Amino acid sequence: MRKKLLAFNIITSLVVLSLMFIGGIYISNQDNESYAESTAMEYAITYQTQYEMFGDIAVPENVSYRVTLIDTSGVVLFDNDVSSVASMENHLDRPEVISALAGNSETQIRYSETLDVDMVYYAVLAQYEDQEVIIRIAFSLASVRAYFYESMPILVLELILIGILGILMSIFFGNRTLRPLELVKSSLEAINRGEYSSIEDVTNDGDIDGLLAEINEINRAVLKGFAKVKSEQTKLNYVLDNIADGIVAINGRNQISTINKSAQRIFGVNEMTIGKPVEYLSGYSQFVGVMENKSDQIFELVLDKKIYLCFLNYLENPTNSFNRVLSIRDITERKNVEKMRSEFFANASHELKTPLTVVSGFMEILSLSTTDPRQADMLEKVACETQRMKTLIEDMLALSNLENKVVPDLDICNINQTCEEVFETLSIESYKKNIKLTSDCDVKIKISHKHLYELIKNLVENGVKYSKPNASGFVHVSAVQNRDKTRIVISDNGIGISKKHQDRIFERFYRVEKSRSRATGGTGLGLSIVKHIVDLYGGTYSLASTVGRGTTITIELPTM
Ligand code: ADP
What we know:
This protein is an alpha+beta fold and about 550 residues long. The protein has helices at about 1-55, 95-100, 140-190, 205-240, 260-265, 285-290, 330-370, 375-405, 415-425, 425-430, 450-465, 500, 515-520, 525-535, and strands at about 65-70, 75-80, 110, 115-130, 130-140, 245-250, 255-260, 295-305, 305-315, 325-330, 410-415, 435-440, 445, 475-480, 485-490, 540-545, 550-560.
């Protein structure tokens, strides 16, 4: 910067001085020429007056100019510089002679071959009686230029001195100008090292000192900001490194931009993985498909006999350093417990179902063979309770499976088709109660078919079960879909649910009217199963019901 400024100043001064010098030469040359011209004119007019008065001219000796007397035919009659005018050529073609004859005298500058110098010529027409002559004055420019050439060395010396002075001044002022910039530079370097260095020097220039004070303030604020960011960063790193879940931040080029200690442990890598492609992580082949899918994903990963539940989330406002976060949770223990529990439930339900089937079989035989109406009534009640127990076991098993299931197996289901399957199952029941089952759901959804069936079945079944006695009712299922979610609405015109129960009916075993629910074979688990399915898919549910009018349940599931 300093060198550039100096070079710039020197070049500028030299250019300016050279221009001034050349300009000076030109102007001085012009001045000299016009002096010679005006002097030539002056002498010409003096000699013209002399001739017109006396019919001749008297030229003093040793004058610095040349006087030539020419007749109108161009013949030279007299020349004070030439002794024998007879040898001189005709001058009629000389421009100054032509202009004088035309009565329009003009000065001419040209090279004189006779005298071998540049000359200024001026001629006038003079008349004495009948005699007309041309009087021409010529000035050698050599004499006027000689003065200029003599003063040339002084001019050059002056130029050099001014040049040297200019360079010294530009070094001095350059240093003064650059000083504040150097102060700012060293202060910024200190900031970069994380130190605060205040600019103490003053330049005695109010504006610059004010600017330096301002920069001091900014530096202080920047350093404070740095310290805050650093402390936040330390805190964040501490938190990241001490959470049990593995966290990997990934950038748009599929490179790892951050990986916490837990993730390093899970993938058996170290901090050097930062900047490497995600493929570098062990087990990548298991989730390569997930990475290609440009949406949030949940998936399981098995590494070294351990099972991990992984969440891949896309950021709403991605930064340059990362646009996705992969979090990995060790669910090996949970999976083992889940396995044991589902095995236990499967075994227990199987064990319970077998005797219950036997009991209900004997019940049927007994009820067929008995003739006693009281006994027949008792046997029917026992058969009904046995069936309820079977349903209860099935519901509990379904609920337990739902609780344990983390990632469902997805199918593409047509909701209308699933509704038809449900209506088929409930056809006898709905026919008996004169309930019309309808659907308007020409929508496909990505969900486990079993879950969709369970969800619709439980809700439609409730609509049938809790209908008004002896009234022709309906249960209608409708569905609409947009880019983000699928909304399924199940409405009936049944008995409805009073406000005070509405908040609780999704709890397990919660029933508004125990006796009625029991009489319809309810277990109190139906809506609980619905809630679990909705939760599993990250959906929402809502209920609108009026006693005596009916119930509408709205389910919203994310469109996957
Ligand atoms: P249940 O097996 O008893 O039907 P649910 O969990 O399915 O259990 O329902 C909980 C309770 O909510 C039911 O006992 C019933 O009182 C009430 N309920 C559910 N759906 C409806 C409905 N469509 N109309 C009226 N009441 C309902």
